[in-house]
Specification:
Layout: H1 30-36, E1 44-49, E2 63-67, E3 80-83, E4 92-93, E5 95-101, E6 118-121, H2 125-128, E7 134-136, E8 143-146, H3 149-161, H4 174-179, E9 182-187, H5 208-211, E10 219-223, H6 225-228, E11 229-232, E12 237-240, E13 242-246, E14 250-252, H7 254-257, E15 260-265, E16 270-275, E17 307-308, E18 312-315, E19 333-346, H8 355-360, E20 370-373, E21 378-388, H9 389-394, E22 427-430, E23 433-435, E24 441-443, E25 449-452, E26 468-477, H10 486-500, E27 518-527, E28 543-554, H11 567-585, H12 592-614, E29 623-625, H13 629-643, H14 648-657, H15 662-666, H16 673-677, H17 679-684, E30 686-694, E31 702-704, H18 711-714, H19 717-724, H20 727-768
Parallel strand pairs: 7-14, 8-13
Antiparallel strand pairs: 1-2, 1-15, 3-16, 4-7, 5-6, 5-9, 9-10, 11-12, 15-16, 17-19, 18-19, 19-21, 20-21, 22-25, 23-24, 26-28, 26-30, 27-28, 29-31
Helix pairs in contact: 10-14, 11-12, 12-20
Amino acid sequence: MFGCQTSETGLFVTQLADGIMGMSAHDATLPKQMYNKGKLEHNLFTLCFRRELSVSKQGVSAGVMTLGGIDTRLDSSPMVYAKNVASTGWYTVFVKNIFVRSNGGQSARADDELEQVVMKIPVDISSMNGGKGVIVDSGTTDTYLHKDLAKSFGEVWYEVTKRSYSNTGIKLSRDELLRLPTVLIQLRAYDEFPDPSIPPESTTGLVGPKLDPSSPHDVLLAIPATHYMEYSPSKDLYTSRLYFTESRGGVIGANAMQGHDVLFDWENGRVGFAESSCEFKEGENMIDPITGKVIDAGEVGENRNCVLGRPSLTYECRESVTVDDCLDDPNKNVAGFEKWTSVVLSSGTSSGMSCEDALMNNWAEEEKPEVSCDGSGLCFELRPCEVSCAEVMTGESGKAPLTPASPTEGGDICEDGLWGACDHTCEQSKIASTLMSDGLCHEVDELRQTRDCHIDACGRLDPCRVPFVVHAIIALRGGKAPLWNRRAEEVLADALAKTVDSEEADPGNEVLFGAGDVKVLLATSWYKSDLVGAEGVGEEDEEIGMKIVVEISIFNANAKFPEIVDVEQEEEEEEENMLSMEEEDADSNTTFLEKFEKVEGKVEEKVKKVVKELLPHGHPLSTCEESDFYPLAKTALDVHAELGREYFLSDMISNMKKYEILEVAYSEKSPFSDILANNELARESQVITSWTIKTDVGGGKVHDHSWDSNFRKFFDKDNILNYVTNIPLMTMALALSLIICAIGLCCGCSCGRRKRSGRNQERVALIAEKKKGKYAKISSTRSLDEGEELGLESSSEYKDNIDSSEGDVEMMGEC
């Protein structure tokens, strides 16, 4: 979509922005157009607004916009969902209550329930939500609520602050600003039947049973004074941008969205809110757990190619040939191949380069080896080579024996026994190799391992395999985010799983998850300002440790995995079936009904085949029963309970110390070195929060997700054109349509005949109730003469019950 702007008027002349991009639920908007063209997998987007104490016409760092998905790595609370009550146009929520909380606080969760009193403001729900309703609009800077709230809000404001409420500038110290009331807005929940794995009393962003026992799963949006009070550096004044001016409806503007990751989900009819810093700090190391490299803000959400580790030599050329190949000439050279193995570090995204292509990309066209991947996180190359028969016969190369290379010659550049990515088979592998004196990495066969996993390609993208994920933010005092790497992720995942599933923590209970179910989403610096949840503590914000965002998959062992479709084989079978059908139809002895049944069956097969072709090849989604979810929701709650245990972090850090490669964990290369050596730092660490995310939305007894991402492609313009131009398919469809029409016509006539017969019976019954009078018998072919009376010849005896033979009335228009 492109536009040409030729002039500016109004505010656009003086403000930084040169225009407004419409993002409402309308077909002409950018997200919807990208979705229609298949550029976005989902018809939704998120806006994540940073917390800023001041504004500038020169602009400030505002946050992040994500199209087609949600990036939860910076969120500090779960995404909770309000219902979007409008199907098109503005995203509109239903406001049920307004509260004011004394002594401020940045979060929907109170810092101190004893010190922070919550008072309810009387609301006329019909007026508040009248007109266009209450819209969530990032294009409106300020927040506007119903005018009837002004008086009661002002009274509560004065009771708490001893100041009169107004929209004029006032002088405030930072402490006074932080003590101003926090406004809380209750929004109707999206889910009519709440997820049992999400406890409302402890989930940040939900109303909870104390404020509203009847609707504890409603959304609670917090607007602290640092968001609704706008600071002017030039005047050194704070001005409230919370207005009570609307006669019907209202606007939740951009200032209310600050400090939140806001989801606009047209696809599912909801608006989501998660508390978040939305802050990619300049110079801060946001570490990619896969590559160990710093993430640039512009790279977030980009499509990625498959990432592979350095290839290791699994077996040499002479191991691929046998003595029998040299019997005719012991002096010749014979062709063989070397087998090289690479660990998949990241399988990438569907639109990126596959692992096979990534391997082939390193070779010239004429030198390309045979490549394959086994689906469990390993890829292989068979490189052509030659070996002398003398070497094959003796088993010796005639070269100096290989010895391990010293660190100065190669260092730690070979695969060092760390787990690779979790592949679509729900397995991941690791190998270990040693750099030898020939400059090559040689695999140590006995150290290759494979284990179950439920992240990455086998993670939350398949909602039936992983219906729930638990997010947790772990803050480690003294941790060093810039040193984060794959080994650190493995140490953490292993210790986390062992601590949650330890016998000491929960004796005799089943394993809740394994180390292969833990994925680190983000490792970033932990600042002093994060301790109180404020935006900063002065000009210099002290870095005190490291925050780690982890995602724990809750796996459904009862999920059913569909078979992988061989599209080429299906095409060959379809052609054979079509030829066979044409031959059978040519048989003069075949009845029309038999032909129709065959046509109907072939149409069904064709449709199934087209749908199968649209599935991601080799990665079909699974199906499951609704009943599978309830025990898994309890598992998620059990994980929360463990994370909240008093000595959980102390136990986890103890398990980190027991890790098999302890000397590396203590080395200066480890982000954990200080915390492992200092028990005081361990005691000051904390699990900041944890929450559960249900990976899918929807109901029904059976969740069949195999159509979800391909239903839109099935009705793609090009696919429809292919169907229309397929003469055999269209012939079948036409025959099927004619049969349906014929059946419908017959059914319609039969139903009409029965309906008219019923009306005639009613008329006969009315006639029978007449006790006297003359009635003329009216023929369907004759009208009444002028002045002639309508009636029948009088009967000498009145009968209450008339036989059908005595009261027949002629019917017209029969089929």
